[in-house]
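<derive_structure_tokens>
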Amino acid sequence: MKDHYPEGTLINTEENKKYMTSEASLMLAQSLEIILEANVVMCDAEHNLVVDLGVMKGIIPRDEGAIGIREGKTRDIALISRVGRPVCFVVTDFSIDDVGRKYAVLSRRSAQQKCLNHVLENMCVGDIIDARITHLETFGAFCDIGCGNVALLPIDAISVSRISHPKDRFCVGDSIKAIIKNIDTDNKITLSHKELLGTWEENAAAFSQGQTVSGVVRSIENYGIFVELTPNLAGLAEPKENVRVGETASVYIKSIIPEKMKIKLIIIDSFDTPPDNTYNYFYDGSHIDEFIYSPDESTKQISTYF
């Protein structure tokens, strides 16, 4: 199995299931150091995690629940919050409980370390990685990049169009692609996302002068209203009363000016609708060295180099 899937990816795969069909298959997984996944059914008073393996119970001792728990660098909430959710682990041993039933001793920490080693040894800045949104803060989105290892996707790296909070773009549980932007000396990984959402020209190609389309009001300034047409493309509309940030707006496209990277809009109407956090990836490779957002004829150049 690949060693850097976000948690929840493996649990329903045939390969994962086959290792939980019998004690013998669990022993084989132990000998091969295979990363498996199963659901946590309980966190006991000592913060050991109880895992349902089907053929038997599994126990992840507290110190094996996550990287940093043993050293006090990771809080126990990281364990408690896994109840009812899938966790990754490797089988390390078998033991007998107080009533004589055999159970498997598991280590999530070892699975996380194996995953992290794989990423650090085989991937580099500019590589594109699978990730899953785990929680959202005002400053960015935290993403599981494999086995519960978390990387930060800062808010300004989510999209070119500015948003007030990552929840404007993502929901917890979303599976996304991201780019490794930085790996610091403590092996903490920072991600980027906007470079996968297309250049100005790629996004503007979906629109033409004279169309009326919908967008999201992202900010209101004295000189106009910024309306997001796509996550990597916003236009400036003329001021209009009774428009609020976060509303959907129907906008008339007055002009598209590539050399200035500008789209001029007129707001026809604005209204409340449920947020539509959809986005499309324009790049499907596995590595990116540079991203040039600006059109060639633009006097303003916006780019990212990895």
Observations:
- The chain has a mean pLDDT of 95.
- The chain has three domains: 14-115, 124-196, 200-271.
- The first strand starts at residue 36 and ends at 43.
- The helical segments are 14-18, 23-32, 77-80, 108-122, 200-204.
